[in-house]
Amino acid sequence: MAIKISNKLKREVGDDAQRQNLESLLKEKSAGICYLCLAPFNYASDSIEADHDTPTDLGGQTTIENLNLTHVDCNRFKRNNPSILVKSYLPFKKFMSENDAANYDLVGREFFKIKPQPIHIENINLEKKQFDLHYPNGSSRKQIPFFSDKVPNRAADILYAYLPVPIKSIYNDSLQPRPIKLPQIWKLFIDLHSNPLHEPASVRLATDFKDGQNKLLMFDGQHKTASKLLTQMSSLDIENNFIDVKMYLNLDEESVTYLVNSIQNKVIKKSLTKLESANKLAVEHRNNWTNYCQKCSEESRTQSEYNFIQSLPPQERKRSANALVQSCITKILIAKDEESDLKILDLIDDKRNGIMQPTFFTKLLNPLVYRKPLKEPHSSQTLSLRERERRNVRFILHTFHTVCFASPNVVETKKFFRSQSSMSLLISLTMEYIKWAYKMELEHVGIPAAPLLFIELGNTTNVRLNDFFTKYVAHPIWKNLANYDPNHSEENVTLFRNALQKNENIKGIAHKINLNISFCSGLETLRTTQL
């Protein structure tokens, strides 16, 4: 099969010679091997395409140096993730596809080639609450402290210790036979590269806590442990690498079963909201940016968002780029001294009349913020770009709230404006309108995808945008939906309503009924036949 290299990608190659010979140059560079999964190509049958090693979203260039040939499936899986992580993960993904119900025991033995061996306990001192432990790799730990907790309806206290142990000393507990789940492994694998502070795995002694040989049985933490091992795949002696565990010293099978059920079914682990996540990532970015700026100052280097991201290890760049964006978003939401609070924030998570937080972020706020790191040197000019974007986004959010929720003209219809589909349509039309209204100003910048960085929505445009939003909510489709009668409504109204209820993209059907930039900007009027 032919190697897939899009015309768009070819046009982005700056060097004429490279562009004309791109396929042959990439084939020569690949040496017949997929850059991601490292399996050989079958040029007669494999679907192959060119991929950016460093994604363009993170500042990667379209050059021979940054392009590689990959299987289409491998590249689809990679998306915008760092190649270095995907290359470590794909062999495991292939193994799991061939061993669909594999649990940690099979994964450990067959994929990681780990042969568990017993530990040896000695010198238990119940008064001082400590013991010695010898590992199967020949190393040992002396005077390990252990602790005790009282448990209701249990005669003896539960004894436990926290310590690192070599992976070869851990067996899978037969009480935990459930299979490994790939999506969970991938999430943990990605997170471990930037956040190694996860809870330790839980293990127990197979027999009584006494001097002599024993086995460590892992009953919780199989996914974390497998993910941790994937991060260590470059190690030549992976089974002797250490992981942190919570070792229970006197837990019987009945107690373990109860504890596992509590962990999996009773203890609800509440995930962070979009706002909480944005705030945490903003703090992370601020700390990393401060350290970066200090280092640049010491080394007399130019600072920029792009250079900051490129200064990080490849596996951390995607997370840091996201943290940068979340930092921008957090600044947008927080009012400065001379500013009034954004009223739209009062509507978030108001289940009766408001906007769900994920919808607010993904459909309304995220599309307004430029997500690529700026290459402009960090200076008062760069700061003004992000500050200008901040002011522009705040104005759009203020106008959206005023026109779509606070106006007395939308009492019957405002419930439609908080839907995902309607928000996506309005923001899409708004960005198109801004690019059109500021076409002359944007042409010299060369970044039409980021108009809110490079223009100032002055008083004239403020009035225009207010009118634009007002025309949007005044379109008769909304009144038709509020008074919908399936037996007496036009076909387009029904199609629009069905797409809105399913949170589908409504831009196509909206264009059919003239709910578009021309109508909202006042350039066209609505013909009655369009509904």
How does the SSE layout of this entry go?
Elements (H helix, E strand, L loop, with lengths): L2 E2 L2 H6 L3 H5 L1 H9 L17 E5 L14 E5 H7 L4 H16 L5 H8 L7 E7 L4 E5 L5 E6 L1 E3 L8 E9 L3 E3 L9 H11 L8 E5 L6 E3 L1 E5 L1 H9 L11 E7 L4 H14 L7 H26 L5 H6 L3 H20 L23 H9 L14 H27 L7 H4 L2 H18 L1 H5 L7 H4 L4 H16 L1 H7 L8 H11 L5 H6 L4 H4 L11
Parallel strand pairs: 1-2, 9-12, 10-13
Antiparallel strand pairs: 2-3, 4-5, 4-11, 5-6, 7-8, 8-13, 10-12
Helix pairs in contact: 5-7, 7-8, 10-12, 12-14, 13-16, 14-19
Keywords:
531 residues; alpha+beta; 13 strands; globular
Unreliable segments (pLDDT under 50, ≥5 consecutive)? Answer: none
Instruction: Specify the structural class.
Output: alpha+beta
Biggest sheet statistics: 6 strands, mixed
Strand order of the largest sheet: 7-8-13-10-12-9
Describe this structure in words.
- The chain is 47% helix and 12% strand.
- By secondary structure, the chain is of the alpha+beta class.
- Strand 7 (147-149) and strand 8 form a beta hairpin.
- Helix 10 packs across helix 12 (314-333) and helix 14 packs parallel to helix 19 (459-474).
Task: Please outline what is shown here.
The chain is of the alpha+beta class and 531 residues long. Helices cover 47% and strands 12% of the residues.
